[in-house]
Amino acid sequence: MKKIFKNDAFQFLSLSMGITLLVFAVEAAKGRIVVRTVYFTLLDVLDIIVAVSIFIGLFQVWVKPATIVKWLGKGSGLKGFLLVCTFPIFMGGSLFTIFPLLKTLREKGARVGALASFITAWGGKAPLLPLETQFLGWPFAVLRLSLVVLFAFIMGVLMDWVGDGPAKMDPNKEAREMA
Amino acid sequence: MRAGLVYLIIACGLLAVSHLQDKQKTKEAVTGTLKILYTILPVLIFVFVLMGVIQAYVSRETIAAILGEKTGVMGILYAELVGSIALFLPPAVFPFGGYLHDNGAAYGPIAGFVFTAILIGVTTLPVELKLLGKRFTIARNIFTFIITFFLALFIGAVLG
Questions:
Q1: CA distances (Å), B141 to each of A62, A98, A119, B27, in order?
Q2: Residues A72, A57: Cα–Cα separation, whole Å
Q3: C-alpha dihedral over A148, B46, B4, B18, to 10 degrees?
Q4: A49 vs B42: CB contact, 8 Å cut-off?
């Protein structure tokens, strides 16, 4: 029984339930908004979440850490930087769909800077360009998209400087030795 | 067709190819997939509840009224705060940016809002903390906020 209470999934779900019930108790109309938001958002992202989870599952068994280290690890240099500062711009999805992917990349030996550049570049959101130009105009969209690459580069440098923390072991070293 | 559906079809196709190549590895991949779903779905539901609470108590009209009035440096900072806290799914970010513009907001604050709305999420923090750790999460969010400020300042200066 004690084990169930310590389980993360159980904690998050009961917390979600508790908050929803609390809002309902205070004002039923607001509670309905919460339930509706959860329902529609979940419906909206479920297919992407499942797809991404399948990608990651396959990725974990098929892609060797050495490949990731070569492209995104220490010493991957400008080539690696260029990759993570541009390629993710063309990806879709929400922030919470790319975190699991990044976790896997990190476990396979990617630098934290590469991960940070990846997230930032992903914020470029090229697939949404039609929306951006329609609502905010071409000058804004073009300027923002070009700044995203610079933004991603700066984030990578800063986060590499912050590093992984002393407690973390260096997966790069291990992977290099294996390679 | 929905983008998510396209991804799902591609994912299943790859799974089939993988199965033809190596059954054992594919079995491991599917186990991995289920583990990931088990890890992230409860956190996601929690995140969506937080989104719902924000949606229930803060109306978009209120946000637009606040951001339309503030200008300059303070306008950008306010916009960044709003973008960090309010959770918009990415496709909703640009229409809302346009709505802000119609309500008198300048391009600087709008850029601040767009960047933080996409890249920072108080509501996605639980996911990021769980998957990428405290050190990474804190540093990334702070740096993103700071650099966004300067980029927004620049965009505001160029576009007015």
A1: 32, 15, 11, 37
A2: 19
A3: 100
A4: no
Q: What residue numbers bound the domain in which B60 lies?
A: 23-159
Asked if residue B143 is part of any domain, the answer here is yes
Q: Which residues of B touch A135 (CB under 8 A)?
A: 94-95, 97-99, 101
Within a domain: B16: no
Q: Which residues in chain B are closer than 8 Å to A134, comparing Cβ atoms? A: 94, 98
Q: Based on the structure, what is the number of domains in chain B?
A: 1
3-state SS of A81-95 is HHHHHHHHHHCCCCH
- Chain A residue numbers with beta carbons less than 8 Å from the beta carbon of B55 are 33-34, 37
Q: Report the distance separating Cα B97 and Cα B109, nearest Å.
A: 9
**How far is B12 from A18, CA to CA, in rounded Å?**
36
Residue B72 domain flag: yes
Interface ipTM: 0.78
User: Is residue B17 assigned to a domain?
Assistant: no
Radius of gyration of chain A (CA): 20
Q: What is the pTM of this model?
A: 0.76
Q: What is the pLDDT of residues A60-105, one digit of tens each?
A: 888 777 777 778 877 777 888 888 888 888 877 777 778 888 898 8
Quick one: B33 exposed, middle or buried, by C-beta within 10 A (0-12, 13-18, 19+)? buried
Nearest CA in chain A to B143: A155
All structural domains of chain A with their residue ranges: 1-45, 63-178
